[in-house]
Amino acid sequence: GRYVKRLWGFGSLAEHAWYITEAKAGIYIHGLPYRIVDGERSYEGLESLGIEPVSHGCIRLHPVDARWLASWDLSGASVLITQPDFTQF
User: Which of 50 and 14 is assigned the larger pLDDT?
Assistant: First the structure.
């Protein structure tokens, strides 16, 4: 899908988003949502990233991973999303 540098939703910003589908709304792969607090980014759910699902359907990435993924042109690429194995945590 298309690339969006910055998203706004549910009161937060998120960066480096790749659009996947409109299954229930816009579903993206993107960096962790954040809010600006005292001029700094305060990431939401950093401690639960990869441990428990906390989004409204999107796939969240660590900000460093989202920047790395954004450096690639994924237009037209196939993406396979699998169920995570939460028992390992």
Answer: 14
